[in-house]
Specification:
Oligomer: homotetramer
CATH topology of the largest domain in chain A: TIM Barrel
CATH class of the largest domain in chain A: Alpha Beta
Structural class of chain A: alpha/beta
Largest interface: A-B, 50 and 50 residues
Largest sheet of chain A: 9 strands, parallel
Radius of gyration of chain A: 23 Å
CATH architecture of the largest domain in chain A: Alpha-Beta Barrel
Protein name (chains A, B, C, D): 2-keto-3-deoxy-D-arabino-heptulosonate-7-phosphate synthase I beta
Strand content of chain A: 15-25%
Organism (chains A, B, C, D): Rhodopirellula islandica
EC number (chains A, B, C, D): 2.5.1.54
Pfam families (chains A, B, C, D): DAHP_snth_FXD (PF18152), DAHP_synth_1 (PF00793)
Distance between the termini of chain A: 62 Å
Helix content of chain A: 25-40%
Enzyme class (chains A, B, C, D): transferase
Chain lengths: ~350, ~350, ~350, ~350
């Protein structure tokens, strides 16, 4: 870290800062400028925090020089990680195509949507059994019954499934039925939940919070990694901003920013980022063009009957169309849509399921 | 709700919208303008959601006319609620003065700070035993040992205590030791946690999330209320913005906005809102002047030794000074700093503790 | 417009609202719901404003149903406009490739950079002669001398030039030397300047302000259009947000949002949006993938010597590489990089200039 | 400035950075840490810019240690400035009470409102003759005719007047009729306009832009100061944020932040900050409590007839009430509402005008 002292810091204050910092186990390097005194701290930055240093009288500004996320940082792990979700690879040129309805609803509808999106080229099927809803009066998900339906769809079409986890008490249950655990935007800094999913062996899809800086996102990934679970896929899904045109502000530049800082893959979710079906196709393509390792899109066959978030879902035929365009884009970019685990050719679901 | 149809919505679409809405149990009222067709929906708005209506083909915009928070709304409960925290009243002209360190640390320090802030006029003592920290490597709190120290301080000085709850599995434990449960900003939309604290009998201090609109905050309060716990105090503690001058953006106008919409009290937390000790006093006074029902301030007797957030704490003598000013402001505004439960005169802590 | 009255609006208030609105020349349509009374206004919305209606006692909310930008709206002009900048077409599948340094600097450097970017495929050369700088002590541009150099580069390589206008007194002068007038982000709501460029015959490149909603941007375009100048190209260049990773927040979803609302073309500027050269290539591709009608990129051959904004410029060889990728992307999307006016084949500048 | 070099910066890069920086006229101070090399620059920071330094290969981060606003900084001028507006003092404990309608409208109404607000205690009368309106179709102000009315009101009641300047060509004209020139939020970075008002002798009321950091605001003040006009009063009037509850986000903490950084006074404008009359009184008091040097409030006697912004104005009787409260608050804070220039007692307008 580097400490910039206040203009007019006294010699006593300077001595106290040096003594304090050395007592923490750092070597110091003093530099008196015309206007400001600067103290370089040489040693293990994890021995203290910016805030603690900021509290020492005379300190004006604390400048960290190393990222506080150690396991997640690209400096620690220069090669891009490839996460394997029950046979589907994400990262390192392998694209995740995650699709499905917002909530798990009745079995027949789920089978229908599942079949359709897999046929179109999705390689991960999604659906929420536990829904974090803004209103206590809104549909909260089918719970375990929903997990069973989700698993059934996954098995029928040979596609791994991902679903949201909202309760630290449910991690084992959800992990039993699904291939990947999603931590939603509203829980991105639910550190109790992050710690629990970090103890699971399931890969984790970690969505960026609406007020989260990229560093916040990487710190939350670090929670999971530090518990021993190295399989984290990040997801940009829009942050808060002032323009009501879209539900959130789709931060597509976060994709290359994140890829510069971490070895973990990052996908985009234009459904939640924009909240508008007409914007999903252009924003999905933009995400891929920016380098995303996959695209998450909500699909529903009758949005007006959806139990949640129907307004931001594509119809199955619209999804089919955008996957074709994404496949062409992937080819241009030299990337591959990951094949389903048991398929012999790319993107072709098991024929028995589609018959 | 009011539905504004798309420019050029067809007669078939209009018929379909009407039929769909009536099938939900609403009466409809059709109005064809020069440019737009509008459908008024008459009935119980909780039968549907904006998103579902938005999904119906031909619908351009959905305009709710009633707030979605029913129990929290002032329309439902015109009189301001006064929340009683083990004898200390908050709301309706009674001011909460919450003070204490960010984290519970060693017993002696806690007793010292507790004695000091109570002597200065605090009527609720705070300290975190479970800390939601951005970094998995930072101090995470003393856990149950911290709760015991907190309780000891509360008992010694006759002051109720408030502490943060971060894990739905800990609600009973935390409720046993403390008088009020704090739900922090990062958990404001942790609906699992809100539901659990809603089942508790302890009053809840609900902090506004960094990306939460005021409606989001009220919806989170509604989660607690809808579980049967009517004792919610809201807290404005800063939202995300673009200026790095302060840690967050202190939204002081939220105080009167919230008071217009709900009967629940709202306090302000200039420590977290600004992250700078020099800004706490002016922002505390500004909060009271805007009508806040109390002020939450972090106090530590040696910020550079604080286990967390020392940089945003006042020293005990600074806290004493600002309480004097807040007392004068309260008088000007015709409000009262709530006395401690057993004190015969306002703001005088039990003499045995201070002796 | 639609007026939603306050809960509990009295009959007298309702009568007054109706009378007031009818006196403005509207017909009204009254609808009393269970909870709210709604008044539909039928007539020419330009006769009043939201704010005026909001001021009438009893009115709770005013909902406009038509966009306030009449000339810019796609409803008024369903077909996408193609803007011609001295022979280079922008919009309707024709892509602008705007490149050049932030500021016009010395003639030799400008000729070198101009030759290079035109050779790479740029079809509009940019450079600022009047620089709006945050600091009064920073380089403010070469003024008319800079305009002359810019013109010389344009003439030498047969490429139209665009430069920023900051002073309403300079419109004629700048228009004499350049093919397109840029209104910068900080002047997007400088209505005096907008009015003056609206009187010019030069096409206008209008950049989105850092706090501008998309509606604000379209209203500013309307200023120019309403003065008689129909040739406006919009530009997304990043808005303010809370994450310090990038200089601004690149709102790529604004591209399809804008294209849905207006017939005017919209390009993207990843240089200003991100402020980081490493992010320019992925964000340029993302912009095209989202449907942008062109890309604006700063290019400098020695960023550390640039008089302004060197840190966000690409080197000429980096620009050459990204144009190749953008050309491949354009082909995939079925679009064309507009050829230079006098070139017989696409993207090949006059051979005499390059010899 | 301090330069933090990139992890893995080569010796050649380090040498080049040092040579480059020394060629600019700085001394350097090299410090090699375990992970990062740091170069301290000793000398006059105005010789270069952050951006230029950022462009040097190998540089990771540039950290300025001195504020870039030299004349505006409190380091340069430790004592708070008191600005004199034709006899009304602002700053150093003297409070400005600015009131009046958004736009100058007909003479009789202006005289009526002017008389009323002066009687209530206003010491500066405001009204816009040139209105920067988002829509080209909205009322744009009466121009010079409006200036004349404004002057007439000022003369009638012995109160200085302030009005907005939007066009650099109008500075002399506006300065002839008014006592103070307002630069509005949308023009805060209209550097051409700032330069022109900097050449005027009239005090300037500089409003913070909706996307302006506090440093941006101070840099804009520096433009005016650097032209020779030392009389700048700053104004916080709300910045952009995500919550639609209020028109802008009232950043009350900006008041003490600004006062720590500059000697210039800062007032607050709760009318524009919130856009809601019900929020003006609590936010006005909050601004004073936070230490503001004055309060700007829009007042109109018939908001529904106002030519602009009626919805955010107080009625004269509401203004009278809030001034009483502000006067009590001022007394508590040990400040004085500046008397009118010719009044013998505080806040009493010339009796002939009120008779």
């Amino acid at each position: 870290m580097i400490l910039i002292l206040k203009n007019g810091a006294t010699d006593d204050q300077i001595d106290h800062v040096i003594q304090k910092v050395e007592s923490m186990g750092f070597q110091t390097h003093l530099s008196r400028g015309t206007f400001r005194t600067i103290i370089g701290m040489i040693g293990d930055e994890s021995l203290t925090t910016e805030q603690q240093l900021q509290s020492i009288p005379g300190v004006h500004q604390v400048i960290p020089v190393l990222p506080p996320y150690k396991l997640a940082s690209r400096e620690a792990h220069p090669e891009s990680s490839v996460i394997d979700v029950s046979g589907v690879k994400i990262g390192g040129g392998n694209l995740a195509m995650i699709a499905g309805p917002c909530s798990v609803e009745d079995r027949d509808r789920m089978m229908r949507i599942g079949e359709s999106v897999v046929k179109s080229g999705a390689n991960l099927f999604r659906g929420g059994a536990y829904k974090p809803r803004t209103s206590p009066y809104a549909f909260q998900g089918l719970g375990e019954a929903g997990l069973k339906i989700l698993r059934e769809v996954g098995d029928a079409f040979g596609v791994p499934v991902v679903t949201e986890i909202t309760d630290p008490r449910n991690v084992e249950l959800v992990a039993e039925y699904s291939d990947m655990l999603q931590v939603g935007a509203r829980n991105m800094q639910n550190f109790v939940l992050l710690t629990e999913v970090g103890k699971s062996e399931r890969p984790v899809l970690l969505k960026r919070g609406m007020a989260a800086t990229i560093q916040d996102l990487l710190m939350s990934a670090e929670y999971v990694l530090s518990q021993g679970n190295p399989n984290v896929v990040l997801c940009e899904r829009g942050i808060k901003s002032f323009d009501p045109s879209t539900r959130n502000l789709y931060d597509v530049a976060a994709v290359p920013v994140v890829q510069g800082l971490t070895h973990l893959p990052i996908i985009v979710d234009p459904s939640h980022a924009t909240g508008r079906p007409d914007l999903i196709p252009p924003c999905a393509l933009a995400g891929l063009a920016a380098g995303a390792d996959g695209v998450h899109i909500e699909v529903h066959d009758c949005p007006e009957e959806a139990k949640s978030d129907g307004a931001q879902a594509l119809l199955p035929e619209q999804y089919n169309e955008i996957v074709e365009k994404m496949a062409a884009m992937a080819e241009l970019l030299g990337k591959t849509i990951s094949p389903l685990p048991n398929s012999t050719t790319n993107n072709t679901p098991p024929t028995e399921a589609l018959a």
